[in-house]
Amino acid sequence: MIVLDTCALYWWTLAPESLSAAARKWCRDISVRGAKICSVSLWELGLKAQRGSIDLGCPIRDYVKRLVRVKGVEIVSVDADLWLSSLDLDWKHRDPADRLVVALAMREKLPLLTRDETIRAWYPRVVVA
Hints:
Helix content is 55%, strand content 13%. It has eight helices and five strands, in the order E-H-H-H-E-H-H-E-H-H-E-H-E. Helix 1 packs across helix 4 and helix 6 (80-88) packs across helix 7 (96-108).
C-alpha cells in the first residue's frame, strides 16, 4: 500500500511516462498492493483543471468516478482527525494539501509517492515519483 500525492496521481492516471521507473513499478502494482489518495488531491486537480493548467480529459466528476472503479484505489476523505493530524506535524510547511497528504501517509504508516522536494526533505518514507 502507498499514498499518492496530487502530482503522482495525475501522472499515474494521465502521464505515466512522467513517473520514475520506481514509481511506475509501484503504480503497475496498485491493483495488488493498493493505493490511498487523500480527497484533497481531487480538489487540487479540479482547481487546476478549472484554471486550465492541466487537462484531465474529462470533467473532474467523471475523472473521480473512473478512479473509484480502479481496483486497489481507496480515496480517503479529509475528516476532523486528518485535519488535526496535519496540525500536529512538526513541520513548518504551510501548504494545507501537502500537510494533509503527509498526515495521511504518517497516520497509515505508509510510503508516499511524490516528487515534491519539500515533502521528500521532511518525510522519510518517500518513493520518488
